[in-house]
Amino acid sequence: MKNWLTQLVGVCAAVFLFSSCEKDEVKVVAQPGDAPTLTASAASVSLVQENASSPAVKYTWKPASYGYSAAQTYTIQFDKKDNKFAKPYNVNAGSSLEKTFTVSEINAAMLALGLTPGTDSQVEVRVVSNLTTNAPANPVKAMMSASTTLSGSPYLSFITYPALYVPGNHQGWSPQTAPLLASPADDKVYEGYVNFTEAGGFKFTPARNWDNDFGSDGTAFGLKPKGSDLMIPGAGYYRIIVNLNTNSYSLLKTSWGIIGSATANDWNSDTPMTYDATKGVWTITTALKAGEMKFRTNSWDADKNFGDNEPNGMPDYDGKNIQITEAGTYTITLDLSKGKGNYSYSLAKQ
Predict the structure, then answer these.
(1) Residue range 108-137, pLDDT digits in tens
(2) What does the domain layout of the chain look like in residue ranges?
(3) In 49, 217, 267, 342, which residue has its Cα 20 to 30 A from 98's Cα atom?
């Protein structure tokens, strides 16, 4: 009887001790504390395509505090200034505590956010911390750093298409520095715009030399290799289309303006733009209303007005109306100097 009671007491003691150990077990529970702290190496960047692979800005950050040594992953978020990260552009940084962005990466982020090429813009940047292991039943919320501001003017990437060059009186007969026409479809049809400062001669060259130039075959708009000089009837800004399938070309003298419900003259007439020969662009600074606009020259023919189908800052012939969502004074620029496929425009609110 004594042995039986002794054994019973021993079992009860073991159960009690086991139960006590269970209750005294230490459970690690994430208790979010301090958010990550973000530091930027620069507050503004120079975005130039020639430097696309160069470092632009470096971000470093201190880990968030979860109450214990927690494994974390990080996401860097970009958004338009004052948009409160409603639709951020996200970059995964893994478990690293730093990330260096190249010029092309920052440029891509700004374009993805819909910022206008060629216009000084600001974005806000923050880092978001998430626990690498996060219990589905009781997830811990991500923690965000305070944001920093980054300024820059995004560019549209210049795409190299098959080209013809246009040396002549207007620029000293130098193929090396001549304006170009481009063939985005690579179909031997080339288009571009050239500013001729005076009446006179010109030719087309397929390279930046005189090896295989095209001139006149003696007819009004016919071409042949090593032909005589082609002639421009007078100074002006001309659209040139060359078709080497038919050895022919066309000229259209243009001057550009804006038109639409957002402009001073509504859809009734154009508001003229001014050609800036130094920069090779058409420009105007004017008051716009909330509404729509297009670029136009000469008429409403499909190949004589530009809208934007994306919108992406690249004008499309006969494209959709360009939306102006906020009234104000804008500097508007139309750049047709780089050949078809690389035309661009910008609207910068003053």
Answers:
(1) 999 889 888 888 899 999 999 998 876 555
(2) 37-152, 163-254, 257-349
(3) 49
Asked if 328 and 291 count as a contact pair (C-beta separation under 8 A), the reply is no
Per-residue model confidence (pLDDT) at position 108: 92
319-327 long-range contacts (CB < 8 A, ≥24 apart) are 319/294, 321/260, 321/292, 321/293, 321/294, 322/260, 322/292, 322/293, 322/294, 322/347, 323/292, 324/262, 324/288, 324/289, 324/290, 324/291, 324/292, 324/293, 325/290, 326/290, 327/287, 327/288, 327/289, 327/290
Hey, what CATH topology would domain 257-349 get? Immunoglobulin-like (2.60.40)
What kind of architecture, by CATH, is found in domain 37-152?
Sandwich (2.60)
pTM recorded for the entire structure = 0.73
In 10 A of CB 112, how many CB atoms? 13
Whether the CB-CB separation of 310 and 320 falls below 8 Å is answered with no
**Is the C-alpha dihedral spanning 112, 114, 117, 122 positive or negative?**
negative
Enter the DSSP assignment of 266. T
Asked if residues 287 and 264 have their Cβ atoms less than 8 Å apart, the reply is yes
Q: What is the mean pLDDT of the chain?
A: 90
The reply to whether CATH 2.60.40.3620 applies to domain 163-254 is: yes
Measure the CA angle with vertex 159, ends 90 and 183; round to 5°.
140
Q: Say yes or no: do domains 163-254 and 257-349 share a fold.
A: yes
Q: Which residue has the tokens 């288009």?
A: 191
Alpha-carbon span 279 to 283, nearest angstrom: 10
Whole-angstrom CA distances from 171 to 27, 176, 195 are 79, 10, 10
